[in-house]
Amino acid sequence: MAHGYDAGRLDLPFVGVATFGKYPLCLDWDRLDADVAILGAPFDLGTQWRSGARSGPRAIREASTLFAFGHAGAYDHEDDVVYLPAGQARIVDVGDADMIHTDTLQSHANIEAAVRKILKRGALPVTLGGDHSVNIPCIAAFSDEEPIHLIQFDAHLDFVDERHGVRYGHGNPMRRAAERAYVTGLTQLGIRNVSSTAREGYEDARAMGSDILSVRQIRKLGVDAVLERIPAGKRYYLTIDIDGFDPSIAPGTGTPSHGGFTYYEVLELLDGITRRGTVVGVDLVEVAREYDPAGVTSILAAQVLLNLIGRVLHNRA
Amino acid sequence: MAHGYDAGRLDLPFVGVATFGKYPLCLDWDRLDADVAILGAPFDLGTQWRSGARSGPRAIREASTLFAFGHAGAYDHEDDVVYLPAGQARIVDVGDADMIHTDTLQSHANIEAAVRKILKRGALPVTLGGDHSVNIPCIAAFSDEEPIHLIQFDAHLDFVDERHGVRYGHGNPMRRAAERAYVTGLTQLGIRNVSSTAREGYEDARAMGSDILSVRQIRKLGVDAVLERIPAGKRYYLTIDIDGFDPSIAPGTGTPSHGGFTYYEVLELLDGITRRGTVVGVDLVEVAREYDPAGVTSILAAQVLLNLIGRVLHNRA
Amino acid sequence: MAHGYDAGRLDLPFVGVATFGKYPLCLDWDRLDADVAILGAPFDLGTQWRSGARSGPRAIREASTLFAFGHAGAYDHEDDVVYLPAGQARIVDVGDADMIHTDTLQSHANIEAAVRKILKRGALPVTLGGDHSVNIPCIAAFSDEEPIHLIQFDAHLDFVDERHGVRYGHGNPMRRAAERAYVTGLTQLGIRNVSSTAREGYEDARAMGSDILSVRQIRKLGVDAVLERIPAGKRYYLTIDIDGFDPSIAPGTGTPSHGGFTYYEVLELLDGITRRGTVVGVDLVEVAREYDPAGVTSILAAQVLLNLIGRVLHNRA
Amino acid sequence: MAHGYDAGRLDLPFVGVATFGKYPLCLDWDRLDADVAILGAPFDLGTQWRSGARSGPRAIREASTLFAFGHAGAYDHEDDVVYLPAGQARIVDVGDADMIHTDTLQSHANIEAAVRKILKRGALPVTLGGDHSVNIPCIAAFSDEEPIHLIQFDAHLDFVDERHGVRYGHGNPMRRAAERAYVTGLTQLGIRNVSSTAREGYEDARAMGSDILSVRQIRKLGVDAVLERIPAGKRYYLTIDIDGFDPSIAPGTGTPSHGGFTYYEVLELLDGITRRGTVVGVDLVEVAREYDPAGVTSILAAQVLLNLIGRVLHNRA
Amino acid sequence: MAHGYDAGRLDLPFVGVATFGKYPLCLDWDRLDADVAILGAPFDLGTQWRSGARSGPRAIREASTLFAFGHAGAYDHEDDVVYLPAGQARIVDVGDADMIHTDTLQSHANIEAAVRKILKRGALPVTLGGDHSVNIPCIAAFSDEEPIHLIQFDAHLDFVDERHGVRYGHGNPMRRAAERAYVTGLTQLGIRNVSSTAREGYEDARAMGSDILSVRQIRKLGVDAVLERIPAGKRYYLTIDIDGFDPSIAPGTGTPSHGGFTYYEVLELLDGITRRGTVVGVDLVEVAREYDPAGVTSILAAQVLLNLIGRVLHNRA
Amino acid sequence: MAHGYDAGRLDLPFVGVATFGKYPLCLDWDRLDADVAILGAPFDLGTQWRSGARSGPRAIREASTLFAFGHAGAYDHEDDVVYLPAGQARIVDVGDADMIHTDTLQSHANIEAAVRKILKRGALPVTLGGDHSVNIPCIAAFSDEEPIHLIQFDAHLDFVDERHGVRYGHGNPMRRAAERAYVTGLTQLGIRNVSSTAREGYEDARAMGSDILSVRQIRKLGVDAVLERIPAGKRYYLTIDIDGFDPSIAPGTGTPSHGGFTYYEVLELLDGITRRGTVVGVDLVEVAREYDPAGVTSILAAQVLLNLIGRVLHNRA
């Protein structure tokens, strides 16, 4: 019996407590034993427009159960591959980092501690934001790891240094990452139109080793040429701001920017990245349920993550 | 250290996987060891107007975390009581009964099996619907128990016998209950205006031992007089259709009916019931997230249930 | 066989094209033969705040099907009466008056012509707005009828004479009605707080024979005392602005005003009115689906209308 | 006078009872006399994720009135054709098949009976779902007809055989169709990413004569090459699952899947199909108003259907 | 000409840029010259459940224009008073305090500076939150003023001292206020059911001079008796948490709590307070547009504030 | 100091009263002194389907503040240009034209007077609709100006002459414009599928000098070829109906039509237009907040307008 519907439960997508992908819940992090650990980081004190990104982790978990058909894995007929084969994908949901309202630094510290714990336990950390500032502690947690190359999908450059004392908001993470010695480079994909980063920010980014490409530039180059620009064989940390996608499929976010990616544009890039090097960390940020009345944004986030994780595990094996 | 915020996590309401009240998840039902077991029954094939009640269990779980301030229990200054004191309320979330799409009888059978298991393990079953037809298997599960008196909060009598072969829809549960030998009587509270039950249904209900009171009649009688009409010292099964409440606070349901209960009207009756006899089973049904854009309906459901459970445990002790 | 579920269809509320109460559609007005004719008047060019009332007729029709359990009539256990007994209530939906965008006077003229036709065919006209200005042509259509007394349920006095040339907007209808010789008086119920009518408007209204009562004043007086203030034995035209109800149950309207009526407060007054004289015309206005995400406002409108029509027919017989 | 605005009513889209395309209502099916019959099948007991598809028929009818400018037919300047010329398109709305809550088989039987009746009366059946399981009785109704080739637009293969006894849910219809002798082949268009059908289902489908193409594969092939793969000159039954479209334009459905069709991709395929053979039946399924806050999904469904019907009639003539 | 519609513009509520009540905008605070100054404080980093309160100021401004019929003032027929007579009510909108994302203390400091400026210019500060933590800087700004008595309308006691270092969140403001020497007492109205404040918080509050009353207790006492408990002739600072109102009329807030105030219950208390002493400061907090799909919550906030300001000015004169 | 965050306020997008782009408010039109004047025209009496477009001006203003990062201007890294450099772009918000409910002609006259005033003061008028009929008075206001060429982005031709007396509705503006002597030609872009304009309308349009292109035709031609068809060096008036865009990014409009433009397709055409001649007037119409739950439509409108204005000013300089 291949996948056991008969012996067990049917477990339809809408049934049961919503852990990520209906994978087991592991709240005792000292006992974490898995290939992939899903961590929630429901922090939105770093937003400059609409708040709400704290709802992201629960929204994505809920949506992810749609793809938890589970028993037979996820068959993709175009690739002719069964991703996430039942019984082989060792994925757990480790719940959320502890958030401290009013306190950015302590909340970030708690996220960093959680990611460090996951890394220590040997699992791939996949962090569900929260606003993009949660990337700052996620990257900070890699300080004892081998160097990483950062690949960002986003509408915005997020390269502001400091304004009015703010250094840890959702406009700052790529700057903070670029400052770290163990971040050897950045590839920033989807950047377009106006944002909080001024001209100087772009100049600084390029000076600090960033490769910046807009959606239109990527479409002109094609997937392969874009992949070629990413240093091969590296350890990649992927940070996916849902607003890198077009507002038509990702309305549920704080700062939508028109002219974004379609689903398969990103999936094909992600697929290529999993083949080009090693994915050592992932965050997906800025999903806000408040602006997602039809749920398509959290469904997008879940669909991207489960497909990405499936490809990471498949190509790693 | 009274309640341990210092030693542990702050665990704000919006943080973490949404189990009911943030109580532990117990998916291995053979190891269930608790005073109260929360079971989801996300079934909505029995609805006659808007579907969506399958979203109830997840919606209520999510809302219930608002009330999971937890560490210090739930202090009610009007009663001067700390309900659900931390460390003493042994409550678990047992996940959902298995649902079989297209198949009413099998889905109901799975709910019945789950409630039977909870009863066997000595816990109080609290079932989250799902439409009101899930009450049918909940009551069926008591066939080996001591007799029960059924107390219903609802806008509708739900006393239809059979039409076009339908005997297990959400218009039938009270009829099905009244037919059982171990249901010694019914108190039906909040019944008002027109519904699917015709005049004959009311006549049958009264003939089969039901006491039917509208919201206006209850307001005229007062809480004490209503409680007096309920047989004292019995084992009570409570079935709470969220549409018993006024649509102003419970819009998120399939068949809203204007002129319903306010929150404290029901809470005061529930409080009295927990003092008048023994609550041996509870279901709360017909919450549908699709029609609850501000979330007030699922918050109401969670607020009612946590206050009810707190009083059941407090008054039992 | 009392009401024929067996022989025919089950016809659940959500099934079928949404005519009002699932009553027959009669688009050939020359063949109209009924006791009650439901007419849509989807006009909202008269609004001063949020538009959208043109969606009212379709929204109310849709909601009314919830109450179309039909085969057995509408049994009210508090009154112990079956209202709208199947086969006896001769009600038809005559569709909508023709609307001419940009053109208030022509749209109103078309409403007036439709109501005149209904009156000529001997049916009770029940008009679904549309904004409150549709009351102007409805009243105009009674110019050849016996005198009428106008009873209004509303938050606002709607007694503005003219501003910037506007005489036919939704702030003017009661003034326009009071000017007509065949309107012998007005009872204005629910009027509260600030609105577009200035102090002079109130003075004019009282001078022109209006009795103005707020919700709080009505609560203090009680239903019977309020009914006593309405001239007995008259022909009543009822105009029900949904914003007379509290925004908690009627959010779906252009200009909500807090502190309004509950459902039974209005139903009890309506019930008394149907006993105190003859209802010769009804309109229910200002339902706007755009602000009614849970549908409770259109459900309220339908519930009020079907209960009112049931009582009109029951008490007339 | 070409199209008679002057003599009659303006009949703006928002005016009047919402029958499909404002075409006449024919509830006496024995008198059905038309080229095209629109049937509602508001069934959603077959869904595995979000319910709500029972709202589809009314939502599509309402949206279709936007395209009922009517008097002059539907002029498409790109084709330079007036589709659905007034007075020539003999289309009727026959209301809904009778639904029996809790009972899948009886509801399906009623749908089958209705489609059989339409076929018997010589009209083209166009069925508005409801979830995709309503395709099962639609196809069953063709058992006495000449063989058909089935063309599906969908994100999901819907080729599950049986699980936990379920054979008539919304994951099963293409399997059920493929089993029938008079279904000579299947063309399955838009199939992508993970769904409830496992790898074996795809293998079975291909073995049973199905041609499966993803959206990306179709884009690479082009419209003409795709049309070439469909057997020419056949009798085609078209089943259009709205989730074949991209969630950006079809959020209002139970199980959205990113990476779907745009509007014109489908319209151009549909146009080609109406020229390549004879369309003998159509269903459009899985529209759920609950997840369609801006109404774009039901507008899409109506726009697709009216354009399809126009082309069927135009190319047939 | 009393109010000049003829000479000027009609200025319907939906017309024009949304300043509070359509009163003039004064962004140069050094030139502030008014009786009342409306200040936005769009801060929501202090929330423990749903964020979104940063949208409050704009939402309330937008809603307030509904009540800007303006030219003739606001006539209340129950009081027979024209409040806010045109040309006499010197009210200005001073825009918002500057917010610094990620930074609670600096954002609070900016609010405090703004309120100090308003006080220095001799105007009554009316602050639009933002979450309830914005009350902390509002009260801080009174350090150089005569003592004040604080009157709170709220579901929650907000009397938490400190947890995990948090002292300036939305659960702390009443504690922070009670600690100040110039706050001579607190009256806390509407407090009910469970919240983040534990039993010790209530004990501390009473020990520090607070009078705590639930909604039910207030209903039993009556308006006059409640007013009697407030020290007479004092300088009152009013802090109105919109969640003091019932969720039925105030769904648009972060932490709704069932069983709250109706509109007139609060208005009558506010009216009495304006007669019993001097209102020297006001804040209205926790309105969140994200959960207010029909806009009734922001309409409530605007209606309460304009009625309150009208009574403050009327009774002061 | 280049852009002065340090000296002044941070002024995050969500902070402050929502004028367009946070530019200054100028309500004294006799003192208007600017390069660009933003005028609201909240008129929706001309709509034939869903109303609501009166909410457009406020919705667009609110959304435009997202792009008011301001201090450093709007840097577009693809163009390597800082548009709208701080201190150089002289833009003001002049509030709204006065609307007269029920009265189309007077409301239009007020819009015309406002645009005339703007033209007289030497500023570029940018009008925010309102429905597309507001284009009629906008064009009328150019009667004393040099001739203009009209460029329209729209799904619909809007070329109806007259029906039932209606000449100034939202289906008529392009016909009205074409009739004017000083309109030397029309370019109509994006026109597709069925609309209220019948075949004769298209024939008339072409006869009166219109160039009509569908979205698909434009895609085939490419941006440059389309620009070539527009007479060079002319004075262009741009009228942008938001429904020219695809419903996926512009759901918030009265009459969505599938198959529309993406964001960059329009931006590239607009960019080319600002280089090909002189833009002398702009309107953007048909945004309706009621159907825009995630706000993406008003964000699109604001993003298009600010990018357009930036390019007009940049290329003019």
From TrEMBL, chains A, B, C, D, E, F:
Known CDD domains for this protein?
A: Agmatinase_like_1
Query: What name appears for this protein in its UniProt entry?
Result: Agmatinase
Provide the residue positions that the database annotates as binding Mn(2+). Answer: H132, D154, H156, D158, D241, D243
- GO annotation (BP), single: putrescine biosynthetic process from arginine, via agmatine
Gene3D superfamilies documented for this protein: Ureohydrolase domain
Q: Which Pfam families does UniProt cross-reference here?
A: Arginase
- Per its UniProt record, what SUPFAM superfamilies does this chain match? Arginase/deacetylase
The record ties this protein, via InterPro entries, to: Agmatinase-rel, Ureohydrolase, Ureohydrolase_dom_sf, Ureohydrolase_Mn_BS
Q: Which cofactor does it need?
A: Mn(2+)
Q: How is the cofactor bound?
A: Binds 2 manganese ions per subunit.
User: What are the record keywords, sorted?
Assistant: Hydrolase, Manganese, Metal-binding
- Name the protein family: Belongs to the arginase family. Agmatinase subfamily.
What is a single molecular function from GO for this protein? metal ion binding
